[in-house]
Amino acid sequence: MHAATYTAIFGLLIGLYIVTRRKSTSSLPLPPGPKPLPIIGNVHQAPKSHAWRTYRAWSKEYGPIIHVNMLGQPVIILSTSEVAHDLMGKRGAIFSDRPRLFLATELALKGLNILMMNYTEQFRQHQRLQVSVLNATPAAAYLPFQALESHQLMCDLLENAGGAGADVQGPFQRTVASIIHTLLYGFRVKDCNDPVIRAVIQLNEEFSEFVQVGAHIVDQFPILNNLPSFLAPWKAKAENHYSTKYVLRDQNFQRGLESDAWNISKHLKKTVEKDGLDMPLDELAFELGTMIDAALDGTTDSLVWFVVACITQDRGFVTKARDELDAVVGRDRLPAPDDKPNLPYITAVAEEIFRWRPVGPEGVPHLNKEEATYNGYTIPKGSVIVPNVWTISREEALFGPDPDDFIPDRWLEEDGKKLKTLPSAVFGYGRRTCPGRYFARNVIWIVVAQLLWSFDIKAGLSEETGEPIPVDPIACTYGLVMRALPFKATFSPRDSQVRKVIARDGDTYSKDHAAMLNQIGAEFAKL
Ligand code: HEM
């Protein structure tokens, strides 16, 4: 771009800053935070990457509620569970919108992404549909199919057992992708390189780039959207993202509608028609696609972090988990969802995964549509509210000492049998709390239980030296989801029973998944 264009844009930004500066009606001060500069505020101090690390350091210096100024845009970072619940939970009527920060994303999705919608009537209509298929009771109907896919994962890992080990992501991604595509659209996924799955993954990566705070200047200054396309490169990117997503979602939705068995596409289409909802079918197809996107990464990556924990954090938790499994389940069958009430330690392991490596360490931001006062501070109207999930999950007052270590016992009462009621930050807050949390918890629980029952999980071996390749427990990507960097692991059967039990039922692809779907449909009919 020409220097004169830069100067013109910079001038425009300064002008806009002055015009759009927010006026407060409260005499209370803003929350504390790093010292801003005139006009740019704290932009020069804003972390370029892995912001949650900086937010944790800031919370130690400035306390549980911090204000930063990004070119006039107030950002409020919340670092304790209490503050996050008080604002985003108890004051949900004010704190449930989404920031304009995502204008680039809105462009990319033409306002159809549920995750990015404000808390409007249109959003609530989508939320009611999601809840009708994802809440605790409907989610329980999916358990047999989730257990079947977990069994398939055990078959896949067993088949590749031995040798130097393999990259971990693929088999877990296939499992989660297959669970959600079967339930939503009626087709199983046998290979993580299936083009439908690769397309979802590629779109999720692009989406993660769109929602990077500060990545698109248009987010701060929507007026820049009026620039011609050659000065606004995000427009073409957004258009391409939208049309690729539209085609994929439409194809999957049609596949669901045309399939013989019950599935969520058919079920929700019927609900929309029966209830006379004002929702065109392409909007419903987008709704289903949002569920796929939201489900795939978070669930897969939490499972991969569990593998990292097994390799780098085992100070006895694996033996404790196995002792519980062997006492309750025995060695003649895989653990099943019905075992859950008798396996509190496994539930504690699952909760510790979410706490130790919350896959969204900076949360998903909210926005307050009214000015608020809290604990002697003013929170200006239109602030971006960031739940500092990484730090909240490390509150020693709640979770005890050594918060950076993986210690499932912190979730259990002294008797080791009952779970404590500790708050979990990973699924968000208030009216925007993740509707897929029951679904995700169920998948993670069964996979973790079956993995611990079946395998010794160790670091992969170097092809040259045969020595284990160390796994760095904190090496991760930066984006909407915190993903472990690629690493190899070995999954060795714990004993001869493993092969016998896993092989006994044979390959799960011979099972009639359409019959399982119809059974879910029959259970839905009773709800
Ligand atoms: C471990 C797995 C998962 C994690 C960590 C996770 C986390 C989150 C978070 C933090 C939010 C935003 C909450 C907020 O704004 O306060 C969210 C929203 C959402 N999640 Fe999940 N999620 C997971 C799995 C799932 C699954 C399995 C589904 C569906 C099957 C799902 C569907 C959604 C949807 C539709 C939204 C948008 C809700 C809204 O904007 O109000 N998620 N999720």
UniProtKB/TrEMBL annotation:
Answer whether the UniProt record assigns the keyword Cell cycle to this protein: no
By sequence similarity, the record places it as follows:
Belongs to the cytochrome P450 family.
Query: Which PANTHER family does this UniProt record tie to the protein?
Result: P450, PUTATIVE (EUROFUNG)-RELATED, P450, PUTATIVE (EUROFUNG)-RELATED-RELATED
Parts of the chain that traverse the membrane = none
Please name the SUPFAM superfamilies in this protein's record.
Cytochrome P450
* Required co-factors: heme
Source domain of life is Eukaryota
Q: Does the keyword Metal-binding apply?
A: yes
The parts of the chain that form a coiled coil are none
Checking InterPro entries in the record gives:
Cyt_P450 (IPR001128), Cyt_P450_CS (IPR017972), Cyt_P450_E_grp-I (IPR002401), Cyt_P450_sf (IPR036396), Cytochrome_P450_fung (IPR050364)
The molecular function terms of the Gene Ontology recorded here are:
heme binding; iron ion binding; monooxygenase activity; oxidoreductase activity, acting on paired donors, with incorporation or reduction of molecular oxygen
Identification of the protein by name: Cytochrome P450
Q: Which CDD domains did the record assign?
A: CYP64-like
Binding of heme: at which residues? 434
Query: Which UniProt key words apply to this protein?
Result: Heme, Iron, Metal-binding, Monooxygenase, Oxidoreductase
